[in-house]
Amino acid sequence: MILPAVFGLLLILAILLEAFETVVLPRRVSRRLRITVLFYRTTWAPWRALARTFRRKKLREGFLSYYGPLSLLVLFIFWATLLIFGFGMMYYSDSRADPTHPVYRTCVYLSGTTFFTLGLGDVTPHTQFERVLAVVESGIGFGFLALVLSYLPVIYQAFSRREVNIVLLDARAGSPPSAVELLRRHTGPRELDALELLLREWERWSAEILESHISYPVVSYFRSQHNNESWLGALAAVLDASALLIAAGDTTCSRQAKLTFAMCRHTVVDLAQVFYAAPRNSGPDRLPPEDLQRMRQLLTTAGFHFLDTPESNAKLDRLRQMYEPYLQALAAHLYVELPPWILAKEVTDNWRTSAWGRISGFSPSERASSTDDH
Q1: Is 323 in a helix, a strand, or coil?
Q2: Does the CA dihedral 28-33-39-42 come out positive or negative?
Q3: Is residue 196 a contact partner of residue 242, using CB atoms and an 8 Å limit?
Q4: Long-range contacts made by residues 30-39, C-beta under 8 angstroms, separation at least 24?
Q5: Is residue 298 part of a domain?
Q6: How confident is the model over 177-209, as pLDDT tens digits?
Q7: Is residue 163 part of a domain?
Q8: Are residues 191 and 115 in the same domain?
């Protein structure tokens, strides 16, 4: 029978193409009809829905943190299973001419032992075609194993590089990071130079996020070490601070703020396209008028003098509309809380906490200088 052989061959080619595009090809694949995309859509939605039933945030974040690594392992098993069934169909198609040949489930067993190169010998190929097929399948199985072993370190290296700057942002912008804390902690002599350097580093970091998360979208599902931190929240804080610096008037950081804003906005827009997350404006306002007024007062007290005119406020609104709908879409898809522009109350930084208590004796205005001595 030719039909099982054709179907099995198409299934094998489809899985090999999926593995190549997911693991080897270092660029985004725009084709929507993909087995891997279907896999993540059908598994992430119920996982996210189940996470919503957890009332405690710590338990919910812990549950969500399992999805990224677990989905990766299940995806490999899924690919291997389909390859085994595809080769099983080809064995079965060739055996139809021999009435003494085993049934389809035995052909799948032969395919499985060949794919994993077990070499049990209780079921062996009967024809020349099956012998050639067994050699090809064993080679693909060996290559598939090597592909998996080489893919995992790449994923975890991308995750590790991403998390380094998120942890560094803890003492510079608070936990969770916010635009107001980022600017407040960069006041004083030569602090604008330090702020410009930080924005330059985050311009490069957001470019690395864009490249790694487009090539390996599964990294987006990996949660950060702390429940009040995330790569999307860090991007939001840097975008907010850059937008505020651009709208507030000319400063020594204005040019770098524009460059950082452009790169970070590029990152969130492209990643929203990767996950087919349409921009949305249905979420709560992250900067209501009362928070905007309080933010200006705090920053003025800290030493930043921003323009407070209708033109500057309108410019800030236009800048927010350029990226916040995409942030909201990604946050809804990944089930991540976006940080506010300004925290409602003082929150202790992660670096100041431990399992045995908190570091006391620092006022909010002393935190930035205290971290230099920590």
Answers
A1: helix
A2: positive
A3: no
A4: 32/276, 35/82, 36/75, 39/71, 39/75, 39/78
A5: yes
A6: 999 999 988 877 778 888 999 999 999 999 999
A7: no
A8: no
